[in-house]
Amino acid sequence: MKEDLAWQIVQNLRPSLITDTQNEIEAFTILVQAQESRLAELPASEQDSLREASAVQRRLRTAIPTAVEKPFIPVGSLRIRPGTNEDDT
Q1: Tens of pLDDT along 7-27?
Q2: Domain boundaries, the chain
Q3: Closest to 22 measured CA to CA, from 1, 48, 46, 51
Q4: pLDDT for 61 beyond 80
Q5: How far does the chain reach from its first CA to its final CA, in angstroms?
Q6: List of residues 6+ apart from 47 with CB closer than 8 A
Q7: Is the Cα dihedral 22, 27, 32, 34 positive or negative?
Q8: DSSP letters of 21-71?
Q9: What is the C-alpha separation between 48 and 38, in angstroms, rounded?
């Protein structure tokens, strides 16, 4: 979001868009700080369990292909197969 904000500023976009992005960044920052505070209050064993679970989740996410890695198929090249369109009945 910070990169988006920097791009919006460079592109001299509407001030309301820039303000919206700044507000989003602030809201997420507050949320992250609140969660970090809650995490710090947990017993060490629970903090360790959460860190381990987060690490596993990150590894799983990196193993799953994303849309960016898949080939782009232009919508115009897609064709509906005969008999699959509900309007044909």
Answers
A1: 999 999 899 999 999 999 999
A2: 2-64
A3: 1
A4: yes
A5: 47
A6: 39, 40
A7: positive
A8: HHHHHHHHHHHHHHHHHHHHHS-HHHHHHHHHHHHHHHHHHHHSPPGGGSP
A9: 14
C-beta of residue 39 within 8 angstroms of C-beta of residue 47: yes
Token pair in block for residue 35: 């969660």
Spatial contact of 1 and 23, defined as CB atoms under 8 Å apart:
no
Q: For tokens 């700044």, what's the residue?
A: 22
What six digits make up the tokens of 87? 């309007």
Residues in the chain, total: 89
Asked if the model's pLDDT at residue 78 lies above 80, the reply is: no
